[in-house]
Amino acid sequence: MKIILVTDLYPTSEKRNGNDQTQAVKDLILSAQEFGLEVSAVIRFQQFLKKKFKFCDILPRCIEGQVYDVPLLGIRGLFIKIYTKLIVSHILKNKEYDLIVFHMSLNAYRYLSLNIREEVPKVLVVHKGDFKHNYLKRCINEVDAVFSRSHSISEELDKKFNLKDVQVLYSGIPSSFFFHSSGGKVACNNEEFFDCKLIYAGELKSLKNIDSVILSIKSLVDFGFKLRFDIYGVGPEEKNLKELAKNINVDSVVQFHGWIDRECLPEKFFQSDLFVMPSCPETFGLVYLEAMANGCVILGHKNEGIDGVVQDGVNAFMVEHATHNLITDKIKSFINLKSQEKSYLRKNVARIASGYDSRSSGLNYYRAMKSVLEDCSNKFGND
């Protein structure tokens, strides 16, 4: 089964750092290839508006053999469709493909606006950021199948568009990330030294709400709790967060470690108690699973990302809003648990994460695409 993938969520660099585009979609596609999924081409639309103009910028570029950067000549959402259509049609001309798969509605909207005629099914995979665009409904109406990237997104599709039981195409983590969770048994960590050892790993940007977490740390320290908060990552908010920690006198508790290789994270998670990332919006957040795989309990945001994989008050701590007061209450609730309860939570989240390995997520993706092809066989006259 061969697909054309239309998305800007497909970085060509294998090197990961704090400013990289998310690798989650690419990793998911690569996992599905084990089961027979082939990517004939990846089309990435690039907005054309640069200060330093070069003629080559208006030409499509082929990267990594099958990844094509297609320039959009125009300003903001407006682009010259005839030119773009010629480029895309030329790319598709010599490609064999059974499906066209869009990740995010903006990419679907740009492609569908070209009115290219092809007799193959089209699939839209909805991400969290899609709901802020008013053309999402149009894209849903023009494709043959809709999937989502998380349980919370499926629920929102039901509420807003009456789409029932939208299947989730979840991401998974490699087996190497299960650092200390053999059999789901995870030891209790560092409770003799800290009331709670918290950790965050990811890009430091405003939607992650790490500033609210730091304010919560201040409140809890003032209550007399002994804490440590390790932050791994870089980003546009790094300077502001460091200044905040210093200004409220928790810079000895909040430790900034900069960027760390992904392969080093499992041990860091295992050495911590609570992974805090109350980000909003959040499509899925693969790092939640990476933390859970190593017995780290989650503090996240309700109706975002990991919500639905874990449940508030059952095996996770979720806030309605990312205010420091609500986050403080959740951290305090975790601290006040008995050692046996904390141990149970660690084992529970590690067990849940074990069901989201990269191989099973790849198989889930492949089967979903295959089901679309089978369901649409009569419509498009396929064998």
From TrEMBL:
Signal peptide: none
Pfam family, one: Glycos_transf_1
Annotated GO MF terms: glycosyltransferase activity
UniProt xrefs under Gene3D superfamilies: Glycogen Phosphorylase B
Residues spanning the membrane: none
Domain Glycosyl transferase family: 198-344
Name used for this protein in its record: Glycosyl transferase family 1 domain-containing protein
Organism in which the protein naturally occurs: Oceanimonas doudoroffii
Lineage: Bacteria, Pseudomonadati, Pseudomonadota, Gammaproteobacteria, Aeromonadales
